[in-house]
Amino acid sequence: MSFLTLDHVSHHYFSKNSYTKALDDINLSIKEGEFVALLGPSGCGKSTILSIIAGIMKQTAGNVLLQQKTIKDSELAIGYMLQQDYLFPWKTIISNVLLGPKISNNKSEKMERKALKLLAEVGLSEVADAFPSSLSGGMRQRAALVRTLINDPKILLLDEPFSALDYQTKLKLEDLVSSLLKSFNKTTILVTHDIGEAIAMSDRIFIMNANPGAIAKVFEVPIELRNETPFLVRRHPKFQLIFDKIWDELDKKEAESVDQKAVSPINGTKS
Ligand SMILES: Nc1ncnc2c1ncn2[C@@H]1O[C@H](COP(=O)(O)OP(=O)(O)OP(=O)(O)O)[C@@H](O)[C@H]1O
């Protein structure tokens, strides 16, 4: 049964002199606890999809359903983690984590215990009372993850959360995030440009087209890979096979999109 459904979702951006057909008839059905990735060329609408699911913007057409119902309180239902951590520099790590509960009048001793437990799970107990400036990039992203998880969101949206980190930190964080989200059975959508990362972390990968943004193909990651940690997935013999298939698909799509743009641009300027 579908947990999160995008049902014929389309989106157009309009401004005074131009319009962009950013999404064209997106249909997605994601199961509870599933980890999926959106992969595609720049401008294919990955961030637009996340913003619509998060309730930051309303789609031009179609429906977004959580457990078959329209999402009512998207702030509580959806957690968002971005490339930048957006921690407040004047607040300690624990205060940053507890900011959401404080704003929603939900700060309590129980919440503080939960925050400390989560910080311990990501190896940040020692720095709970430190300020963000004294932490490394990877530690700050771990704090940002805890801040996202404290509200117990039903869906987690990860928008290139590792792309600003050095390679080693990124691989370590992928392992940590993957095991934590699996243990909480969180339904997660990851946006990334990194094919390896998408394979290493996901159950399914949606390849997108640009102009207009659409789902072009869906790859199921083989079960043998899904049972490994992201770090070990990259060493699995089946990793290169699926990597090559996705690479070819993206290459093909890129060539098609260049041709299509040259012949008949869908996005353009109003006359
Ligand atoms: N606020 C906006 N106004 C007008 N057009 C927009 C706006 N935001 C995005 N677009 C356009 O919509 C399309 C999809 O953009 P979006 O940012 O969702 O793509 P993306 O796949 O996330 O790109 P990237 O990988 O570069 O982050 C692009 O053509 C983009 O130029």
TrEMBL record:
Pfam families: ABC_tran (PF00005)
Keyword Transport part of the UniProt annotation: yes
Entry keyword set: ATP-binding, Nucleotide-binding, Transport
Gene Ontology terms for molecular function: ATP binding
Residue ranges of domain ABC transporter in the record: 4-235
Taxonomy, superkingdom: Bacteria
InterPro entries: AAA+_ATPase, ABC_transporter-like_ATP-bd, ABC_transporter-like_CS, ABC_transporter_ATP-bind, P-loop_NTPase
Signal peptide interval: none
PANTHER family recorded: ABC TRANSPORTER ATP-BINDING PROTEIN (PTHR42788:SF21), TAURINE IMPORT ATP-BINDING PROTEIN-RELATED (PTHR42788)
Protein name: ABC transporter ATP-binding protein
